[in-house]
Amino acid sequence: MNPLLEQSEHLLALKVEGVSVKADLQSNSTRISLPMHENKSKPATLAPDETLDDVIRYEVKEIGTHVLVCEVNYVTLAGIAQYFRKFFKFQVLKPLDVTTKFYNAEMDEIYLEAQIQNITTGPFCLEKVELDSSEQYTVTALNTLPNGESVFTSKNMLQPKNSCQFLYCIKPKPEIAKDINLLRMANNVGKLDIVWRSNLGEKGRLQTSPLQRLPFEYKDVRLEIIEALNIVKIGEPFTFLCRITNTTDRPMDLIVKLPTVLDFNCPYTGSTEFCLGPVDPTQQKEFPLTIFPTKLGLIKVSPLIFINTLKQEQYTIAKVVNVFVVDDDYHEDEAFQMNKFVRYDSASKPQYEDQSLQLQVV
């Protein structure tokens, strides 16, 4: 028998000792050591045809080029430590495109519109889209119907290039809302947490960076309407509760004026003027105002004027409150028909597709 063949067969029958595998994931900015063989405390010994396997799970958080570096260490028959490496290069593509829009509303409310677009080549199913609020805010999702059902389909399937919108109402916590200085500094509202599955069942997760709201722009005084009806009957008193805040670092002595114009086109009556009194820096005062609507439909109550007698300064609030005025036989139930209070200019049956309708409240 050939001696070289015998020597080769002898070497193939030997075990390889001191075998260990190490894996690193390298991106454009970082290099991370990935956990492998966590249940093995010592290097392995491999018999002929025996393998050492492991499954690596890691959540990739960067897009771009990644390199998986695998290093195998072992000990030769002569007791010399050796190693070799292999490199696996792959691209991490952006699966979603997330755009956000902020809207500042009254009473310190913020509305966040989040649009999610599928920019992959295949469909996927959205399992969760939530806004995790920061410590300064509370979040209410506005993506369900009054009966509790989602406004989307049960599967939330997004085809390639398709998108959907989610809406959230964000409110500062009471201890933040009552302090103007804290409210101005509370810019971080939270993060969007998105979970989806591909058409093959592969799970993906994306969390945005902290979302920064638009800054609240307060002048020297800040007006809030803290209590008001949405619908009132014509001729009946409409009372709404206001709160004024001194956002400056100096005291004020305020006079409140709600002027009305003696004109046929004026939608309400109820001119008033009174002394509100002193308001210290960052302090608040509440007061009611009452008007009498004289026209049907949506009316706007404005302007409201504050005069600081200490500095002879005047502040005009252009947008105060809106209210919908109905006739005196209006009643809130399912049988109420708004068409009873609306007259079409055209006597023919309305054509919604071919022409626009002009509505007139009668």
Automatic annotation (TrEMBL):
Limits of the Trafficking protein particle complex subunit 13 middle domain: 96-213
Every Trafficking protein particle complex subunit 13 N-terminal domain range: 14-92
GO cellular component, one term: TRAPPIII protein complex
Residue span, Trafficking protein particle complex subunit 13 C-terminal domain: 230-325
InterPro entries reported in the protein's UniProt record: TRAPPC13, TRAPPC13_C, TRAPPC13_M, TRAPPC13_N
PANTHER family linked to this entry: TRAFFICKING PROTEIN PARTICLE COMPLEX SUBUNIT 13
Family, as annotated: Belongs to the TRAPPC13 family.
Name of the featured protein: Uncharacterized protein
Organism: Glossina austeni
Lineage: Eukaryota, Metazoa, Ecdysozoa, Arthropoda, Hexapoda
